[in-house]
Amino acid sequence: MGIKHKLPFLRWSVLRMAVGARNITTTGQIGDGREAAAAEYVVANARAGDPDDVIATIDRFAYEKSFLINIGDEKGALLDAAVRRAGTALALELGTYCGYGALRIARAAPAARVVSVELAEANAEIARRIWAHAGVDDRVSCVVGTVGDGGRTLDRLAAEHGFGPGSLDLLFIDHDKSAYLSDLRSILDRGWLHPGSIVVADNILVPGAPEYRAFMREQQGRMFDTVEHRAHGEYQSLLPDMVLESEFLGGG
């Protein structure tokens, strides 16, 4: 990809993100328009119908223009590998943001259907625009909602997207860190995972999901077989982070 910028901490876009942290939890966006700008940049600069180039263009925007909070290129490679190991035909993502994670899943599993759940309609619209430009919108879709809404979004996933017992091959969790464990439990309660399904969770260290990590350690060799991948935070090489890759063994 040729991008060498790994030290974003002094950039205004990163400082602005820190100021906008509260916006992220309430609106799903940082609050300075960078998400919409990323979509404009993709449409203007990436080759239409080329997922590789769209992903590379999003990465370039995050390095050179404004820092983005998607999984990024380094940790994204871990997601790619997990998608392939799962033999993914149906994937569910929690936390769409600008559509980057779902696009990586779709690229790694060219025949898979990918459904992403996103709290913010504005993010959903941005993601759909990017997916359309990449040429994957025929099999990647976004449902606006949240797993923690009393079952309404899960019911919609079942009714409109075919989720049911044993149907889910790959679950990617990258949304509200405090909801990681409760949302996983809700999906387990539905029985959607099957032995061999893989659950990937980002940002285990930063911002951090300690309850989720503790659960996976408790369930090691019982319900899940988990590998802890040490990496770095998005689009830099100073701040450590971790991705958990957990193969479902059954039970729950």
UniProtKB/TrEMBL annotation:
InterPro entries the record matches: SAM-dependent_MTases_sf, SAM_O-MeTrfase
Alphabetically ordered keywords of this record: Methyltransferase, Transferase
UniProt xrefs under Gene3D superfamilies: Vaccinia Virus protein VP39 (3.40.50.150)
GO MF entry, a single one: O-methyltransferase activity
Superkingdom per UniProt: Bacteria
Coiled-coil ranges per UniProt: none
SUPFAM superfamilies associated with the record: S-adenosyl-L-methionine-dependent methyltransferases
A single BP term in Gene Ontology: methylation
Name this polypeptide is given: Methyltransferase domain protein
Organism encoding this protein: Mycolicibacterium hassiacum (strain DSM 44199 / CIP 105218 / JCM 12690 / 3849)
